Predict the 3D structure of the following.
Amino acid sequence: MIRAGLASLILSALVLSGCYGGGARGTQALYDPRALPPGPAGESIAYGYALIVKTHKLMKAYVRADMSCDACHLAAGQQARGGSFVGVYGRFPQWNKRARRVIALQDRIAECFLYSMNGKPPAYDSKAMIAIVSYIAWLSRGTPVGAKESASDRYIEPLPSASPNPLRGSKLFAQRCAACHQSDGGGISGVYPPLWGSRSFNQGAGMAHINRMTGFIHYNMPQNAPGSLTLEQAYDVAAFVLSHPRPRFHKNVLVVTRPLPAKFF
């Protein structure tokens, strides 16, 4: 599988890079499979890219939400103000307020599987986890270690002082969002992610926080006219989306990975 499937994975990456790496608003197009290093290192980066854009398909054992990583990390993590991965590699290890400890990049990826994917993380030594880290590292090459996220990459803005209006948000959602995400918020499997319900991200995900969803919508949605919603309109839409039920995060579930012999290290 590792060798036999690599050609198809890299071919898939070439095709997908044409969709995600080139014309998107704010995309830096840092991923070009033709420029990858030869051998296992390049193969791992290509596999990481494939996992980001086809997470639900390629990692069924780890994902319960009907989503892939690029639902929140647009253009496979290359788009400014769209959950960019660029430079992320050099910001770890870092203090994490929620975990109340210093975490590694693998911990942060594990969080995404637990919260946004409503699933479970792959083992830190697994081919999948190492590939995702390899891909993020590749996008971050050239960024100084410890460099802070640039202002042009952030999508979290101070929220408007007035309270959001979910009723106004429901009307905007019907006009501007339902064509892709459907009127019931269920999306279209494999194309547009569900925004609420049992197949969406759970209550602990970053997008379940109104400040994050508001900024993301403001800069990136609707997909055919990003930036066309004001911050106030995005706030209303976010409030409407988050007024719906979604899976609960079960914080006491144990995360268990397989033991390894000492010779592995």
About this structure: The chain has two domains: 6-153, 166-242. The first strand starts at residue 94 and ends at 96. Residues 23 and 40 are 29 Å apart (CA to CA). DSSP finds nine helices and two strands in the chain.
